[in-house]
Specification:
Layout: H1 21-27, E1 40-41, H2 45-54, E2 56-59, E3 63-69, E4 82-86, H3 94-115, E5 120-126, H4 135-180
Parallel strand pairs: 1-4, 4-5
Antiparallel strand pairs: 2-3, 3-5
Helix pairs in contact: 3-4
Length: about 180
């Protein structure tokens, strides 16, 4: 039996049932958390450290949620939101850390991805209780943390705009005083 190169055994390039062109593209190295979600994975250590040191955070019993707005940092990056998670040995052994990562991945996919904003990085740091805490409580915690952090970020943005407006008003008053002389 002769086999031509076109019919060589091995993985085929044909689409299987339920696959789309996007699925094929995602399987070729696109590092999204899910095919439907808009979140891309954070891979570089410096991005984790930047989100933890310069972003805002909310501490819950099961995890710490950090959000960092990349637009304010003048970083040249894609506009798509990115997400990352980490579980240290404080959480437990390899089995507990893997469970924590699976839970954090599910939380990101189900809750953060639909509400993710452009130019934002989301980092979840696992705490010891993430392994034993009920998943419904983790969902509640992350929803509350996300809403509180968005309020904080929106409030900070309004304060920055107000400060810029006050500076401009002050400059106009200085000009009026100078023109009157």
């Amino acid at each position: 039996m002769t086999v031509s190169y076109d019919e060589a055994p091995g993985p085929s390039n044909k689409m299987k049932a339920g696959m789309t062109n996007q699925t094929l593209f995602l399987n070729r190295g696109d590092r999204r958390l899910s095919a439907s979600g808009p979140l891309f994975m954070i891979r570089a250590r410096r991005d984790f450290l930047r989100a933890q040191s310069q972003g805002v955070k909310r501490v819950t019993p099961g995890f710490v949620l950090h959000i960092f707005e990349r637009r304010n940092a003048d970083l040249f990056a894609t506009a798509a939101p990115r997400a990352g998670f980490t579980a240290s040995k404080k959480v437990g052994g390899a089995v507990q850390r893997n469970l924590a990562k699976r839970r954090m991945r599910a939380l990101m996919r189900d809750i953060i991805a639909p509400e993710a904003r452009q130019h934002y990085d989301y980092v979840i740091v696992a705490r010891v209780q993430i392994v034993t805490r009920a998943y419904t409580l983790l969902e509640k915690d992350i929803k509350e943390a996300l809403s509180c952090l968005y309020i904080t970020l929106d409030g900070a943005g309004e304060k920055d705009q107000a400060t810029d407006g006050q500076k401009k008003e002050g400059q106009k008053k200085d000009r009026k005083i100078g023109d009157a002389d």
